[in-house]
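User: Hi! I'm working on a homework problem where we have to compare a predicted structure to a textbook description. Could you give me the structure for the chain below?
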Amino acid sequence: MPPVPIARLLAAAARLAIEELNAELARSGFGDVRPAHGYALNAVGDGTTTSQLARRLGMTKQGAAKLVETLVREGYLDRAAHEADARASRLTLTPRGRALLRAAEEIQAGIEARWDAPGLRDGLERIAGEDAPLRPIW
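Assistant: Happy to help. Predicted structure tokens:
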């Protein structure tokens, strides 16, 4: 039997990490978070518009608007008037949104510490680079 392709191994490992991350986040009081929420919150930054978020995530503006509405309703994002464009809103993380990202970073550090194999991080960074797009695989 031929070896399992690396892309399949990477996809399986990413899926396992996301499942573990979300289970730990739920135990930490963030049970309403879905994987798409994490991608969006990481892509927001301060001052991002819904249109910019849609481009960063490779999704439609309508899909991004729905995602933003959910994150605002659940207390992870704030929406404010955009200084330069009256038609747009400026999105910013709330304290709850920042707390979620901090918790996720800690959990991911634990996962990485358990998974670390010599050269794994260096090899992945060489392949994907530090500026790899942060887009979910829809």
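For your comparison, note the following. The chain has a mean pLDDT of 87. Residues 6-27 form the longest helix (22 residues). Good luck with the assignment!
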